[in-house]
Amino acid sequence: MVAVGRKLNQVSIVPLSYKHRGTHNTSCIITESTAPRTASNFNRNVKPTKTNTMLRAIAARAGLSRSGQLVAPSVCRAMSSAAGDSNGLVLTEEVGSKGVITLNRPKALNAINLEMVRLIYDAMKQWESTKSVVIVKSVGDKAFCAGGDVRAITETSNVELARKFFSTEYRLNALIGSYRPTYIAFIDGITMGGGVGLSVHGKYRIATERTMFAMPETAIGLFPDVGGGYFLPRLEGKLGLYLGLTGFRLKGRDVHKAGVATHYVESKNLAALEQQLLATTSGAEVESVLDRFSEKRDAGAEFVLAKQLQQINECFSAPTVEAIFQQLERDGSEWAQNTLKLLHKMSPTSMVVTQKQLELGGKMDLKTCLKMEYRLAVHHAIDSDFKEGVRALLIDRDQKPRWNPATLAEVDPARIEQFFGPLPDGDELHFEDEGPKASL
C-alpha cells in the first residue's frame, strides 16, 4: 500500500480509506519544515518537478487531489502493523481517541490464525482504557473474515495447538462482548466462523450488499463455536438452530433482517461512514451517524426466509435432531425436502452436539457459554469428525466425508455427554479479571 501524506511536527497524516488494496505499508511522506500550510498554498509553493508530478498522480489515485490540487485530509491517522506482526497480517491505526484494526490476509480471505488472534487481542487490550471507539475491518472486497485457519489445526493433529488457538480466540470473543470502547465491525464480504466471532458480540455490526454470513461448522465435523451457542438461540424463534444445523447462507440485507447485523450500509458509503465515525465525540453521536447511513430493517425485498419461518419454528422445535428430521419428513414441502437433503450431508455427531449446545447456551451468559465451547473444541480436536470434515471439504475437496458414525441412529448419547464433560487434564478455559468463576 502506498500512503500519501505530509509529516507535520512528527504527526503522519494519511488519507482516509475503507479498503487497503495492497498488503504493504509503505509511506511516501512529503516533508515540510515547520508550521503547516494550507493545501492550496502547498501546491503553489511546490515546483513542478518530476518527483512532485509523480506524487500528485499517486495523490489523485488516493483521492487526495481535486483539479490538480492536493487536498489536506481531515483526520490525522497513524498506521502501523500490530506490535510483533512482521508479516503485516493485522494493521492498527490510532486516530485520536479512536482505533482501527484491519485484517490484512486477503489471499486467505482474511481467515484468522493464532498470530492474528493474539495481535488483535493485544491491540484491543492496549486501547481498552484509552479509546472511545474501535472499528474492525478488512483488506479487499471479498471477505471480512472467512473463519479460523482450521487447516493449520487439523493437518498437524496437534491438540496443544488446538488448545492455544481456541483458548486465545474465545478470550478475544469474550473481550469483544464486554469491551468498554464502542466496538464496530464492518462485515463487508464473507463472514463465517471466526469472522462471526470477531463481529457478532460487538455493539454494532455493519453489513453491506457483499456480506455473506454463515456458520457452516456441522459440514466440517465441528459445531458453531466462537459463542455461537450464545447468539444463535437469541435470534428469532428457531432461526438460530436452523442456521447452526444447516449452515444456510444469509446475504446482504438478509443479514440485517435476521438480526445478525445491527445496520445495513452500501459498501460504496463505508469510507464516508468511517470518516464520520472517527469524528464523533459521544456514543449518542455514533448511534446517530450509523442510523443516518443505514437502511431501515424492513427496507428492500422481503427476508429470504420469511415464508419459511413458521415451518422452521415448527420443525426445529422438536426435542432431538432425529425428531427434527421426522418433522421435516412429515412437512413434505419442497423446502422441507431440500432442508433434509442438506442435513444429510452434515456430520451426525456434529448436529447432535450443536442441538444440545444451543439448548444449553440459550440459558448461559457469553463467558460461561465460551467455557462450554472450549470443552467441546478440545474434545473435537482429540477425537471427532473434525479432521475428516476439513479433509473432505477444504484439503482434498472431494466433498465425500466419511462420518463416524455415518447415521443419526448410530450416534451414542454417552459419547455426546463426553463432549460436554470436563477435559482429561482438567485444564479449563479461564478469562482475565472474570471475577467469580462461572460454573458449567
CATH superfamily: 2-enoyl-CoA Hydratase, Chain A, domain 1
Structural class: alpha/beta
The number of distinct structural domains comes to: 1
Helix content: 40-55%
Distance between the termini: 47 Å
For the largest sheet, list the strands in their spatial order. Answer: 6-7-8-9-11-13-16
Average pLDDT, rounded to a whole number, is 85
Number of strands: 16
In CATH's first tier, which class applies?
Alpha Beta
Low-confidence stretches: 1-74
Total count of helical runs of at least 4 residues: 18
| Beta-strand residue fraction | 5-15%
- Biggest sheet details: 7 strands, mixed
Q: Might you state the CATH topology name?
A: 2-enoyl-CoA Hydratase, Chain A, domain 1
Q: Which architecture per CATH?
A: Alpha-Beta Complex
Q: Return Rg in Å.
A: 24 Å
- Mass-distribution shape: globular
Could you please describe the fold and organization of this structure?
Keywords: Hydrolase. Hydrolyzes 3-hydroxyisobutyryl-CoA (HIBYL-CoA), a saline catabolite. Has high activity toward isobutyryl-CoA. Could be an isobutyryl-CoA dehydrogenase that functions in valine catabolism. Also hydrolyzes 3-hydroxypropanoyl-CoA. Belongs to the enoyl-CoA hydratase/isomerase family. It is built from 18 helices and 16 strands. It has 440 residues and is α/β, with parallel strands linked by helices. It has a single domain, classed as 2-enoyl-CoA Hydratase, Chain A, domain 1 (Alpha-Beta Complex). The strands form four sheets. A seven-stranded mixed sheet has the order 6-7-8-9-11-13-16, sandwiched between helices. The longest helix has 19 residues. The radius of gyration is 24 Å and the shape is globular. The two termini are 47 Å apart. The N terminus is likely disordered.
